[in-house]
Amino acid sequence: FLVRLFKNNEGIEFRNKVHELVEDIMRRKSLKYEKSGIVLHHFGSVKDEKTVKEKAEQYSKIILKQLEEEPENARFNYQAARMHLGKNDFSSALKYFKKAARIDRNYKLIFSEIAKIYLQMNDKNHAIEYFKKSIKHNPDNPSPANNLAVVYMSMGKFKEAKNILEEQLKKHPNNKALEYNYEEVLKNLK
What we know:
By secondary structure, the chain is mainly alpha-helical. Helices cover 63% and strands 0% of the residues. The chain has helices at 23-28, 49-69, 74-86, 90-103, 110-120, 124-137, 143-154, 158-171, 176-189.
């Protein structure tokens, strides 16, 4: 989760030029934070198409400037990848996601992001490879395994998908996405 509410007198300030965060400075100051149950709504993208497009261009310039200043920053490479993905520039998105993964293999679900691009490029073999890496680096998150099972299902490999889903359902017994896909696998194995 993201920290959005904090005391104004603790010396906390947002860092980064785009998608600003306070978590890094809070960790450095050994300040603790927790979920509050307060819901904040962000209406920044509820604007006309021209304004959204102009904002995206402005953000793109800022993201590339940050990356130029800190080329070995996983977060900035990730943002550059997302920017290119938004423009359907898959090769550039892959380049920056892979660099972010090289810098920090545990940054978000980076290997799943790479796998999803390969899926969009209809390269299921590479997608499988990267979903497996994502499972390895995120063993407590059922999402990469669920996605891998779906890829196997799309290839008609229902037994492989069934094995993955059964293993995940043991760890996450009430996960609706896993349950749904498991039911689909069973239908196709009859």
